[in-house]
Amino acid sequence: MSETTPESAGPAPARRYPRGVVILVGLAAGTVVAVGMSSIRSILGPVLLTVVLTICAQPVRTALERRGVPRGLATGSVVLVLFAGLAGLAYTFVIAVTQFVAMLPDYADQFAAIAANIGDFLQKLGVGTNEIEQVKSGFDPSAIAGFFGGLVGGVASITATLVIILTMLILLAADASYVPTVLVQLGQRRPHLKEALVEYASGVRRYMVVTTVLGLVQGAINGIALWLLQVPAALLWAILAFLCSYIPNIGYFIAIIPPLVFGYFVGGWPTFIAVIIIYGLVNAVVQSIIQPRVVGNAVALSQSLTFFSVLFWAIVIGPIGAVLAIPITLLARAVLVDADPTARWWRPALGDVGEARAIMAAADAEAKANRHRDTGHTPEQRTRRGGTGAHPPIPPRDEE
């Protein structure tokens, strides 16, 4: 029997299209999709938020049904609680912004002084007059009020968004009762897709719930600290800290800048430094210690990809895209990578480095063992010598 060699196996099947063409077509298609999503951002943002909320609330509705609560009552209760929380947060934010805008004229002199100092500094660096005036215009209280007013968008806009969210919540919550059966049918035909969607829902649910709880704690601590320091609009900055807890990497810097400025206005450098210390400690404990341990490997995205996703989705969908950057990116990975066995080799490149860490740990352990073996200080050799050091043990002296 003759063996099959690579030469006798025949030539490999040629690609239908060159790799460069495939990459360019993929990039062009992605650009078209991104532009299309951006054109309907006013609808797409609330819809994506509703999908994430429905995923997070699904276990609560299921638990109520298991306790004998009728399906309609369980669904309605979950929808009302979610909608009441969103509406309360939205209108509290509007009230806080309104109060903040009303008090801005009281700090016009402080803003003018900061703008003058920055203008003098830029002039010494050789920056042109037009550029300096553009920078100084950003410290005009009316410009700041216009920015926050545009960010809120008015009560009418918020009400319209809440109506969309409420409608989608009712419809998605009603459809969610069929999800278990649909997943069983999907698993019979597309088992990899079913596995990817189940893993996505579990990971997003864990990430969002943990981030929400820790964000509430973080916002409450920061708000109380700012109130004790007599920083203006402490409630607004507490809500901002809560919302920015959903924005990885850059959310901390967005949340700290406004209270820093107004803390400096009312208390000078001591309050300025106190705000930095408080925000830094709270962020370090919550975001760097507690959250990674609780969330675990539910996200598994690299830091660079996380940062890029925040910028990308903020441009495509708007501010809500920055808040939902992690869930949206995980959904794209689940559909494009996790559901396709031939594309799962992309996971380590996207941030799933669990296997790579294990390999690196084994390599470090082997290198450490080799160093001990070369110096003759391995644990086995120390045991044979009867001690823990490199020198043999000193024999006991004979009694006289």
From TrEMBL:
Major localisation: membrane
Superkingdom, natural source: Bacteria
UniProt region (Disordered), positions on chain: 366-400
Biased composition (Basic and acidic residues): 366-383
Membrane-topology descriptor: Multi-pass membrane protein
Residue ranges the record marks as coiled coil: none
GO BP, sorted A to Z: transmembrane transport
Transmembrane segments: 20-37, 43-60, 72-97, 158-186, 207-229, 235-257, 269-290, 310-336
Compartmental location: Membrane
Record has Metal-binding as a keyword: no
InterPro entries given in the database record: AI-2E-like (IPR002549)
Keywords recorded for this protein, A-Z: Membrane, Transmembrane, Transmembrane helix
GO cellular component, as recorded: membrane
Pfam family, one: AI-2E_transport
Similarity-based family: Belongs to the autoinducer-2 exporter (AI-2E) (TC 2.A.86) family.
Name the UniProt record assigns to this protein: Predicted PurR-regulated permease PerM
